[in-house]
């Protein structure tokens, strides 16, 4: 199957229905395009799990606030076609904003309180936009399995919760963060960084590595760990640290002690006008 | 196929998936049980449209407010089995509240402003409960077509809007109100009425019939029509008239003149502690 580009919702639905009727499995990799090696690894993984791999490319306006970077978010369909096909995609679904959100659109999916924490404090309507568009993409591409990146760790948690609670019969796989050689998490937004900001942004990975090392050595004082991470990041002269959080992986509530076996650390930091997020999932062997 | 009773979500999903893989069509009739002739007509219509007819029976707690009749809503599965099988159902899906809403449940579907009008003024969280459970039932029973009654006219509008906006690949059919001989719309809640209340409640149908006659005769004064309907209903000594509304069928906004070809009249009236709703959809031939 050579790469097909499908912009129409109804054409995509009909094709997906036909594929399912043939007993074939569909995998969906939802993206906002400007594909990088992180996306390629998701697509390659999808290729190994399904008969037909759909990559959706849609810069979803409803997950951006009015003051955010929707208009300048990078777009390059020709580049994306090469990356997607190279990684094994069969179909790119790239609908228009007008077809996805016709006049009068008002139905949204509200993830509940978890959408107001961490990222939600800085982007209060973001996750409602994410769950709504993901549900739409599920209903349009009809996947058996959908793959998301671990970098957006709160998104991954919220999507899994939505799938479970709304009974979407879809398996969700979360794939590890893919990083540049110096540790910076791959992101389409890295393209916004100046050369200088790009260098300073390695502090995020360094702070996470530091915390992991300290936790595995047995440190239990969260306030101290947070302070140490903050110092490492502050030394890189960021425009703002939005949050550095220790999170329970089952409830996505903030941890007040390190007595759980698994810990998520998540952070969001701005360099110039660019907002970056990163995360580690740490297993404490001492508690096994 | 003799009637199957399936309480498990995963068993229902697996069966639905198997049926779809065989190329058969599934019709869903979502109900809260205590089936009456209105439900039977929906099931019979579903029978004529699909290979497998699923009737869901679930008294959905999230569409009742704390002060409403969730606890006393009538339930009778043995009776429902007979009605459903007699009308041609293949499967009754009757999950538990605990399986539908496990601890920590927080994902809801928000229909937007339309859910705050008419019924929504008196039941502000009602339609959010409806859309959420209907989406769940769609994902569990995987229908090609789902049938709803016209009596709950705002619900029908909101469900169709959700299906369109979230891209559920499901055909929605709205079936006409089924009435008792004296015009009272069939409803499981009619069982709450005392003999006296039951008789007085025929005023709802009479008021709608009066409005239809007056509109078809050419009356354009909405305030006058509303007043005339109100007088007919008030003569029946109701506990409260919640609303009598003239509604645009495309936008579900309140009409301020009768210049549209199609008009929905909807009303909600209480007799004793029982809240009844009814509706007419009127086509004005003069505007054809």
How does this model look, in words?
The structure is a homodimer of 288-residue chains. The first copy, chain A, is of the alpha/beta class and 288 residues long. Chain A has two domains: 4-175, HUPs (Rossmann fold, 3-Layer(aba) Sandwich), CATH 3.40.50; 188-280, Pantoate-beta-alanine ligase, C-terminal domain (Pantoate--beta-alanine Ligase, Chain: A,domain 2, 2-Layer Sandwich), CATH 3.30.1300.10. Helices cover 38% and strands 20% of the residues of chain A. Chain A has ten helices and ten strands. Chain A has helices spanning 9-21, 37-49, 77-87, 97-100, 119-122, 126-141, 153-165, 195-200, 202-216, 222-234, and strands spanning 4-6, 26-31, 52-57, 91-93, 108-110, 145-149, 171-175, 240-247, 262-271, 274-283. In chain A, the strands form two sheets. A six-stranded parallel sheet of chain A has the order 1-4-3-2-6-7, with helices on both faces. A three-stranded antiparallel sheet of chain A has the order 8-9-10, with helices on one face. In chain A, helix 2 (37-49) crosses helix 3, helix 6 (126-141) packs across helix 7 (153-165) and helix 9 runs antiparallel to helix 10. Chain A is globular, with a radius of gyration of 19 Å. The relative contact order of chain A is 0.13. At the A-B interface, helix 1, strand 5, helix 6 and helix 7 of A face helix 1, strand 5, helix 6 and helix 7 of B.
């Amino acid at each position: 199957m050579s790469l097909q580009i499908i912009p129409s919702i109804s054409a995509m639905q009909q094709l997906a229905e036909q594929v399912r009727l043939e007993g074939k499995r569909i995998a969906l990799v939802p993206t906002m395009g400007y594909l990088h090696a992180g996306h390629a690894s998701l697509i390659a993984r999808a290729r190994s799990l399904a008969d037909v791999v759909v990559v959706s490319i849609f810069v979803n306006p409803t997950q951006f606030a009015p003051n955010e970077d929707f208009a300048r978010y990078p777009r390059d369909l020709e580049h994306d076609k090469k990356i997607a096909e190279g990684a094994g995609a069969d179909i790119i679904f790239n609908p228009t904003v007008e077809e996805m959100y016709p006049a009068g659109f008002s139905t949204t999916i509200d993830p509940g309180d978890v959408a107001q924490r961490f990222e939600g404090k800085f982007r209060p309507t973001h996750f409602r936009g994410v769950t709504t568009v993901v549900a739409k993409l599920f209903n349009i591409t009809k996947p058996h399995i959908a793959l998301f990146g671990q970098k957006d760790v709160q998104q991954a948690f919220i999507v899994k919760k939505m799938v479970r609670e709304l009974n979407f019969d879809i398996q969700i796989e979360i794939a590890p963060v893919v990083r540049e050689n110096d540790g910076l998490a791959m992101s389409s937004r890295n393209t916004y960084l100046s050369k200088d900001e790009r260098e300073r942004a390695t502090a995020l990975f360094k702070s996470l590595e530091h915390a992991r090392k300290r936790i595995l050595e047995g440190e239990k004082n969260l306030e101290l760990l947070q302070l140490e991470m903050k110092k490492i990041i502050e030394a890189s002269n960021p425009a703002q640290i939005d949050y550095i959080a220790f999170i329970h992986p089952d409830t996505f509530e903030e941890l007040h002690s390190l007595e759980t076996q698994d810990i998520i650390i998540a952070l969001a930091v701005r360099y110039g006008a660019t907002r970056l997020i990163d995360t580690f999932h740490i297993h404490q062997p001492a508690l096994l």
